[in-house]
Amino acid sequence: MVTATFRFYEELNDFLPPARRRREFESPCARAATTKHMIEALGVPHTEVELVLVNGESVGFDRILREGDRVSVYPKFEALDVTPLLRVREHPLRVTRFVADAHLGGLAHLLRMAGFDTLYENDFADRDIAEISAREGRIVLTRDRELLKRREVTHGCYVRALKSEHQFREIFDRLDLARSARPFILCLHCNAPLRPLEPALARPRVPPKVRERYARFTTCDVCGRVFWEGSHYQHMVQVLASVGAAP
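RE: above sequence
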């Protein structure tokens, strides 16, 4: 066994017991334990970590801890330029797309509304989500920190908020999604692309009052649903405007 001193910064403290938050503390480490092993053993999912310093030196997740090491662990930086330092993830994702766990159906629908490819099924098992994330390069969204500790998961976000619209704002702010949003291009129900539908083709498929009031329609070729800019649309525009992504 060796003993190292740890200090976690900013929102990473949310994963720690109160006695260890925002302060240095010592912890025993198994011999040959890596920084990743100990960070997760202390309760912090590796997907939440952007930078690790050991004795002031930037290191990767595979650094073996030694007696007396001082470990500083940081989340994603929003203002500080850490370009010269070693981020712990080797490759950024080229396309921002998600897979959400079974408890985040509302968030998944809102992300689809904003144009982000988001897989969701209410019977996804943790194993399924981890495999999809690794195979398709998707960011895992979950409130289960143990899921984020799985080895296959390289990119993920622990969702702190409880209500769907609050979760939506949290993820938009954290991942700076506003500039990438393309609202109303995906089906909220099945994640497939939407396409314009001629009014003459739409009218037999919508209620009579809708035929009278609306002239623009889109449809999903997978589930067959038809969409129009009704009262629910106005609410969705307001939600998008709250994150700087209104169409």
